[in-house]
Amino acid sequence: MKMDISVVTLVFGLLMFGGGSARVVTVPPGPLIRVEGQPVSIRCDVTDYSGPREQDFEWMTAREATGSRLRIISSFDPSYSDPSFSKRVASGDISVVRLQDNEVELKVAEVKATDGGYYWCLTPSTDSTMSGNYDARVQLTVIPNTLRVSPLTPPPAVSEGSDLTLSCNVTRELSHATYLSVTWSVKRGATSEDILTLGPQGDVVTGAKYARRYADGGIRLVPGRNGLFELVITKVTTSDDGVYECNGTEWTHDNRGKWTKIVASTREMGTVAVTPTGQSLSVKASSSSPPLLSPGETLTLLCSVAADNLPALALEVAWLADGRDVVTMDRSGVVIHNASAGGSRAPASLERTDAGEYRLGVRGVSGEDAGAYACRVRAFVDKGGRSSGGGGRWLLAAEKTSGAVAVKVAQTKPSFAVTLEAVLKPQMTAEPTELACHVTNITHLPLEGRLGVTWEHTPLPGAGSDPQTSQPVGSLDGRGNLLPAAMYSDRLRSGEISLTRVQPDTFKLRFLRTQEVDMGQYGCSVAAWSANSQGDAAKTAEHQSAPLAVRWVTARPTLNVVAKRVREASVGGATFEMSCAVATVNLGEAGYSVLVQSQDSLEGSVRTIMTLSPDNVLQHGGATDPTRRDGLVLTKFGPAEFRFRLAGVQLSDRGFYWCDITAWTKQQAGQTWTRATSNESNKVKIDFQENGPSFAVALQSDTTIVYPWETAKMECSLSVSGSSPKTGAHADDLAYEVRWFFTRLRGGETTTQVASVDRFGVVRKDARNSSSDVSVERKDAHAYTLNIHGTQDSDSGEYHCVATPWYLSASTGAWTQAGELTSSRVFLTVRFAVWESLKLPLLYGVGASIGVGLFSLVLGLVCAQCCCRNTTHTPRSRNNLMDLEMD
């Protein structure tokens, strides 16, 4: 028994003191190279130690590795420092900062040349046994500050689009292995952002806003000799304004691959202002043509462009006539004509005659060419670098428009006559109407044949408007733009009414479906347009046609539907097909909706089988069995004929079938259908006889009383008699659809479906308000079992099954559905077991009590052994270091 207690005590001691861990004190690898006058920090940490979590540290230094050490500072003893370091520690020049419980940092605010040497980090022992190292050493080398940064002053002002060169000289005296980096930055207000940095290894890092510009070649680095570095920013813009600075940094590289910055110097290079192009850009337009041009003469205009940085700009030059673009030369020199500007009949020419000189020429001018001409110039700066071939990102630097130059052309008033004729006249509602307006005997018409037409309609008396008041339908202006009147706006936009110019001297008005409100008198008015002396479009002549009457005799539409049998269904499983033909009177273009309806007898209720909308959207009615929808077809067989087909008829399909058809019309495209008239067809009968088998169903349970978590089984058995298909072991001509239902007698007699299996054997379980589960098992060809697993009190109630037999008809070979069968009801009771509910909690309580007692006994023995053991080692004081040799 004594040996067992000793073993327990040893295991407990190993757990308490961490077994055989060895203390490790670490500092950064040396030597550390630092610059005189700069801050220095040396970290020290200890791991794998015993004792309190917070450890103490002491720092010592010596000139040589084996020389006498001087005490610098301690993390716990204020009087630890040597007199040579006391003042620096008291002033805060030397300090120790605790980073974690086991990590501190020795900080020197301004290192001196005399601080070079070896530094030791020591930790007093708090371990029960001595193991590992208790100090670590690193060498510190202090070099003089020889870093020099001498920038060259950039020009104070640079024109937009020019290049800017930033030169900076960075040197140092190389006494140890140090490296240099150079950074250019720009300051705008209080915000400064880096442009580019040439790293100590020669790597290049760009600022976030300058990365793409550097990749495109818009920023270039040009290393020089003797510490001279140049940064060239090409194609500067106004966003490049600011105060530029140059930063030089000296680095060291330790054997772990870490780069350390030891000294840095930033010098201001100077302020650079970018002169915007818009300040010096000027545009002037002038004319070398006579003040008044005769029709057919040539118009010549000159555009002069000047700017301080003109060679660095890409120009886009455009001539405007009354504010509309006539012709444009883009920045690459491509000339673009604007055909929709309403300019001259002859195309205009634009060419560059000299640097900043652009000439516009228009040959064969007419009255339409008169107006106020101005030259618009857009100046672009290429932001793409040389890597993109000079075709990178373009920036619009400035835009200016010259003063207007008035151009006048002499005019002659045109003369012509207007006649109106009916190309198509409707004979009934919804038929098309087409009217043609002809312009004849034209003289002195302006070039381009700028004629406009306006159509007007005067309604008949009693049509809802004053018969003496004409209403505008719409117009086409001289440029062919459609201007609809408010009353006809929707019909013109939808295309129901169209206004067109089919020839230079012929205009047409067309109604796709003429309505009764469209009857009345129509007239067209044609106007000639040309430019006046001020350059504005003016109506120079206008003539109106004689009125033309459009009307017809209205009659009420009628519709007749005839149904006939196309295919007879004489036996079950055959296909029945019926045709419904439509004949109309006084009805133009129309759409039809079809309802296929049926009834078991002439006195029975009417069922809707299928519907087809006038937009040919097919839907099944509420009387359609979802499993038979693939056998139902309703199609449009012709312009006014529809076919209905029913495949695989059954005894339940016998009865009368007919079509209910409605005619619909639209006043205009895009609008909703309007009902015109409807009618029903004659009735076609499906009648055949077939003797099928008869079925019976019964529900039985192995027990009606179960306890919670037991399984209850209910078997739904079916039997077949009479003229039946094969019923052998491998019969495949008989199938059943079976569903089970549950009626809960507590909380209201509501019946819900529990589970089902279709005739293909697919089982579906419905959602239930119980934690129990159900499954369905097919025992043989005529028996199905419902299993309720893990029954609960909520499963108590009445159960019954509903079966639908399907058999393969011997005469047609088609599957036929028999009538639905409902079984008797079985009541299931779930009783509550008191002992079963209390057995497990009692067993768990007894087991827990025994476990707690045994654990208390073992813990007392372990604590007694630990308190009675002899102390073999006394830890030293925290205030003094432990002598390793004596220990």
From TrEMBL:
GO terms for cellular component: membrane. Gene3D superfamilies: Immunoglobulins. It comes from the Eukaryota. PROSITE patterns: IG_LIKE. Residues 22-131, 144-246, 276-377, 414-542, 693-822 form the Ig-like domain. Residues 1-22 form the signal peptide. It is found in: Membrane. Keywords: Disulfide bond, Immunoglobulin domain, Membrane, Repeat, Signal, Transmembrane, Transmembrane helix. Pfam families: V-set. It is a single-pass membrane protein. The chain crosses the membrane at residues 842-868. This is Ig-like domain-containing protein.
